[in-house]
Write a structure and sequence with these properties.
- The structure holds two protein chains of two kinds.
- Chain A is of the alpha/beta class.
- Chain A is built from 28 helices and 13 strands.
- In chain A, the strands form four sheets. Chain A has a seven-stranded parallel beta sheet, with helices on both faces. A two-stranded parallel ribbon of chain A has the order 6-13. Chain A has a two-stranded parallel ribbon with strand order 8-10.
- Chain A is globular, with a radius of gyration of 24 Å.
- By secondary structure, chain B is α/β, with parallel strands linked by helices.
- In chain B, helix 2 packs antiparallel against helix 3, helix 3 runs antiparallel to helix 4 and helix 5 crosses helix 7.
- The chains are: A alpha/beta, B alpha/beta.
- At the A-B interface, helix 13 of A face helix 5 of B.
Amino acid sequence: MIAEALRGKHLLVTGVTGFLGKVWVGFLLERLPDIGKITLLVRGRRGESAGSRARAMFERSPALRPLRERHGPDLHEFLRTRVQVVSGDAREPMLGITSSVAARLLPTVDAVVHVAGLTDFAPDPMEAVAVNTRGASHAADVAAQTRGRRLVHVSTCFVAGMVSGEVKEELVAGRSPNGTLFEVTEELRSLESACRAIDARVGNPKAIDARRGRVELATQRAQALGWPNVYTYSKGLAEQMLAKRNDIAITMVRPSIVECAHEFPFAGWNEGLNTSAPLVWMCTGYAWKVPIRADNCFDVVPVDSVARGMTIAVADALMDRAAPVYQLASGDHNRFTFGRALDLAALKVRKGYAPSGSSALERLLLTHLDAVASDHGADRSFFVPAAERTTKWLRDTLIKTDTKKYLPKALGEEKRSEIAMRVQRAGMRMNLTHKTVRSIENMWKMYQPFIHDHDYLFRTDAVRDRTHALSPDERAKFGWDMTALDWRHYWMEVEIPGLDKWSLPIIRNEPVPEDDGFDLGGDVPEALAALPAGEPSTQSSGTQSPGTQSSGTQSSGTQSSGTQSSSTQSSSTQSSTTQSSTTQSSTTQSSTTQSSTTQPSTQPQSVARGAQ
Amino acid sequence: MTTPPTIRSASSPPAKYLPPGEVALFRVEGALSPRPTLTAAAWLALNAQRVRTRLLGLSSLALAAPLGMRDPRKAHTLAWSVLEGMSEDRLIVLGEMYAQEHLFPSLSRVGLELLERCRSRDQRVILLSDNLDVIVKPLADALGVGEVLCNSMELARARATGKLRAPILPPEIGGTLLRERLGERGVELSACAAYGSHVNDAVLLGAVALPCAVTPDRELRRMARDLDWPVVEG
């Protein structure tokens, strides 16, 4: 049924260089080699063309390892007949596809699958709207010109906003999560107008104050409508924009928290940072009190399960019998909780997993002091505020104290100066520690709506019903497979080792491994780019929202590393920008934030990983 | 296993005591490993998630240890009650760790040789233990033994209640309860061979056709001598 629906069909897919996008494309090409054609909409960046980025992805991304192993030296020929690249940008009208290309391409397309999205946790709202909200509209505009007139839009379960309990697979047009009736175009116009007013007041849209002001403003607007942050707000507005369209068939796919693959391309594969990476990093380190509500659902879905669900949704859309919304979550049929995740992380540490570089004493402490849930929220959790106060007091004491005054003169001036300088240095180091603790506290606060305040139960009836209708053979290949997932095995043997290998190196400022040694051969850009690619650099920079570092943020956030190394590079090069543009600047925050620009780093980001 | 055990009679036990084709029951505590069940309970309690729970658990076990001298059953109940609230995940993971880190290294050579001999004679081997399944099953898997009779923790919402699931195998395994549980597997207790080391195993050894005391404690040794049970030293 699935194979039949996709046989010979032509899909236009955005966001293919992101975590979910590339897994899904690899999954399709691996399991449905009879698919007609997949056109990858890729944004060139930093002088690298779309074709070149796509080539790098096929040559080096571990997500496409099964494809390389299956076809070997014939991969080039296989891709030539199945894949083509077109340059574009989700922020641009018509996704940045030039009119000449559109005229040739779109009449042959059966469905547009819009995976691209900005997945930063607290992105610049202008950028978030441009990519996530208006980008969805642009995808719909493109879909309207295809022969299939179908759009499958990858959103997130967390557009549900700040609610607890059951979340149905439905979209109520003109109503926000807290029930407020609103008009989405008016809301966008007001937001953009208010952001421009902030820019005018500050004078420089790129100034930190301007960005901070825009984020605060958008967050307030989001929360007034029932969304916890800018990310879910922008994705929610995107759904509202699409709900107004009646000229095309629209199918929403809402993944929950997208995590390490459990099977495809191979167990443990991940890219960038997501919700669990910072959590695991903290919980396997020294965060002994974690401000979570232990019984709340931790709605994790492996990326390959999301790929399965997406395939079902796309097949249904192609057969014109799709449900309006497909939520891809686990909580309603195989519930995993934050308390259980925490317990399993601690047990993994006991079984020998310890942060690299830790001393024997640290390992002893880490293996015998398990992280526990502190059910008081980030504001009142014991550890972080106490540590924040203590480090602040120590910093102030060390820096402000005139040490020389208290040292006996018998030591001599030189010795006294040296000791005083050491004390000052210790104070500076304590200052860094203090900032780290503050950033941890801020991170918990950002996570709080998702890990503490709300207990979501996303219904997944559509994908499960469709799975039941599949033949045993297709169910094995494409069926929703979360029911049988063994969380203990997945979390301890797949997720944590996977994060350790593929994600945590980013936090640790270490290189992320990637596959080397494969050469597609031939003129790959030409082979892949059966359609002419545009000029990516001009397209991508043309619509940068004022006051944002959007070129870097967008490229890494939306396209999230065609290759791992580029992801790492982008995160490191962006760290200072991102640090400065947020209120936190400490080491941990920078790593969290920098990862969030590269890959989602928090709950909604990870959700958005599905939307990459 | 601290020092390699020496085997006096295991190498040449009387043939009438180890016939092929029968069921051989091995008591884990003693015949295979010197580690008592209370040690496992203590280790699990010591590795509870919260420090406060660990301290409370160890305090309870400090009471259980002397109580075990007078009333092993009560001590047994008290020992396992300290695990109340522990997650199923933790029980399973820690059980595997305990088996690997503490039980495997303590296995006695003589016990393993007897086990191997039974298997080589196509005897059906069943491990008997009053310990938890999360510990005994990894051991059985490692030894290649397919059957175990042991206890398991009662769970409620994936957390230990601190009570063992009925029917509970007490420290002195044997009698009607064991007969019934073996009967469910089509095994006639009175036709089995059994290997035990402690006086607690006397009931078991007395109920089987072919008892064997393996490096027995003083009381069991005396009993074995009186009842003419073979004694295997390690």
